[in-house]
């Protein structure tokens, strides 16, 4: 079985990454994702820790409420999220994939924080908070 490799990186090119086997592709409407990205919501895909790596540069991580949000220190692109330094997975922003169209979001999470002028019409499952 050959697995598709996902490539991506930040706007300025200082950071490049690759991974495979992404899962849990969701739109997150939580207020922390919104503020840290500067966008109304963020689309994330999860990779198992061992299936994701940086091939050029690395994110600078900022701790907020115990969670690590990673961005490019040069251009500010929002790239990663981890629940902590020993987390078993990396969440990566799908919009920084070279081919974001290659994955399909499956749900909206944290819709309790959704901005009222974002109208959901894609029929995907919604979760008021996290999936679990
Ligand atoms: Zn950059
Ligand atoms: Zn979020």
What does this structure look like?
It is a single chain. The protein has 132 residues and is mainly beta. The chain has a single domain (5-126), classed as Metal Binding Protein, Guanine Nucleotide Exchange Factor, Chain A. 5% of the residues lie in helices and 40% in strands. It has one helix spanning 31-37; strands at 5-9, 16-20, 23-28, 42-48, 52-56, 60-64, 67-71, 78-82, 89-93, 107-109, 125-126. An eight-stranded mixed β-sheet has the order 6-7-8-9-4-3-10-11. It has a three-stranded antiparallel β-sheet with strand order 1-2-5, with no helix packed on it. Strand 1 (5-9) and strand 2 form a beta hairpin. The longest helix is centred in the first third of the chain and has 7 residues, at 31-37. The mean pLDDT is 96. It binds zinc ion (2 copies). Residues 28, 30, 32-33, 110 line the site of one zinc ion.
Query: Major sheet: size, sense and barrel closure?
Result: 8 strands, mixed
Classify the secondary structure makeup into a structural class: mainly beta
Order of helices and strands: EEEHEEEEEEEE
- Termini separation comes to 31 Å
* CATH fold group: Metal Binding Protein, Guanine Nucleotide Exchange Factor, Chain A
Give the overall shape: globular
Q: What is the average of the pLDDT values?
A: 96
The portion of residues assigned to helices is under 10%
């Amino acid at each position: 079985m050959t697995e598709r490799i996902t490539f991506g990186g930040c706007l300025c090119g200082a950071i490049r990454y690759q991974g495979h086997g992404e899962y849990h592709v969701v739109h997150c409407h939580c207020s922390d994702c919104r503020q840290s990205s500067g966008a109304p919501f963020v689309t994330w895909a999860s990779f198992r820790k061992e299936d994701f790596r940086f091939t050029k540069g690395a994110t600078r991580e900022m701790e907020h409420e115990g969670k690590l949000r990673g961005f490019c220190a040069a251009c500010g692109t929002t790239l990663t999220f981890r629940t902590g330094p020993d987390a078993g997975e990396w969440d990566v922003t799908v919009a920084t994939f070279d081919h974001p169209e290659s994955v399909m979001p499956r749900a909206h999470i944290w819709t309790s924080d959704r901005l009222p002028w974002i109208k959901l019409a894609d029929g995907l499952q919604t979760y008021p908070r996290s999936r679990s």
